Amino acid sequence: MNSRQRRGVILLILSVLCALGAFAGVLSVVHDVQSKVGPEVTAYRVRSVVQPYTALKTGQFEKIRMPKRWLSENAVTDLAQVRGKIAVTTLRPGSLLQNDMIVDRPALRPGQQEVAIMIDAATGVAGKITTGARVNVYATFEGQKEGDPDQSKIIVTDARVIDVGEIKALDPDDDKNQPTDAVPITFALSTLDAQRVTYAESFAKRVRLALVAPGDDDAIPDRDRTYELATDK
Q1: pLDDT for 175 beyond 90
Q2: With 90 as the cut, is the pLDDT of residue 190 above it?
Q3: Residue 94 belongs to some domain of the structure
Q4: Are residues 121 and 210 in the same domain?
Q5: What sections of the chain are H helices per DSSP?
Q6: End position of a domain, from candidates 104, 130, 154
Q7: Whether the predicted pLDDT of 36 surpasses 60
Q8: What is the sign, positive or negative, of the torsion defined by CA atoms of 120, 123, 124, 130?
Q9: 79-99 pLDDT, tens per residue?
Q10: How many domains does the chain have?
Q11: Same domain, 187 and 212
């Protein structure tokens, strides 16, 4: 083997050693990154705006993967956790879903029952009445016989809303005064109040909800529970 061949062999060996060194360096970097990032776990991100006190649905969230070490301890990692829950604040798109953003849906108290009725979406809800809200229920009735005045009555006070459903289109009607869209509202009511609300839904010309301000516990006097236009002075 002459000197030129020896130099070629030496250069080839050096090239192989450099390649092995580079490969070892890459492996070291990858191992270092993996040790810093750690294994990935499942988390969930908000897809679209979720209003406070509204019931949560799995379709409102998207599944993502992220390093476990970057995930907070109260992050939701299983969508089963949202069943029967409501949002306690507005959830913004892109936000990581966490346990402190949601709470259990309000439960019935002893002696109460769930009652759902359809409420005019435009005048009865207006997007402001949500799960957990307290409302007064108003109903307008026609006079019982010809010549009797129409009356507006407060039939239930301080009713607790436990669910607000999706807006539904009603069947078309010749009466233009009837609502075209309605929302199912579920209340937690005593037996007597449940009967009042059900009666109003069946026989009243219109049923409306009035939102009660937080902390307002003042009772409405009996004289103010019924209104007639002829007696308004």
Answers
A1: no
A2: yes
A3: yes
A4: yes
A5: 3-37, 191-203
A6: 104
A7: no
A8: positive
A9: 888 888 888 788 899 898 988
A10: 2
A11: yes
23 residue type, one letter: F
Cβ atoms within 10 A of the Cβ of 178, count?
A: 14
- Tell whether 90 and 149 lie within a shared domain: no
Between CA 29 and CA 7 the distance in angstroms is: 33
DSSP letters, 169-186, are: EPPP-S-TTS-SEEEEEE
3-state secondary structure of 124: helix
Cα distance between residue 146 and residue 144, in whole Å: 7
- Please give the structure tokens belonging to residue 118: 């359809």
Same domain, 86 and 188: no
| pLDDT computed for residue 196 by the predictor | 92
pLDDT score for 165: 79
Burial class (CB in 10 A: 0-12, 13-18, 19+), 176: exposed
What is the C-alpha separation between 28 and 191, in angstroms, rounded?
A: 71
Whether residues 91 and 117 share a domain: the answer is no
- pLDDT score at 137: 93
CB burial string 134-169: b at 16+ within 10 A, e below: bbbbbbebeeeeeeeeebbbbbbbebbbbbbeeeee
In a domain, 141, yes or no: yes
Range of the domain at 194: 113-231
**Residue, of 39 and 25, whose pLDDT is higher:** 39
Give the CATH number of the domain where residue 52 resides: 3.90.1210.10
Whether 40 contacts 65, CB under 8 Å: yes
pLDDT score, position 10: 66
Contact (Cβ atoms closer than 8 angstroms) between residue 90 and residue 52: yes
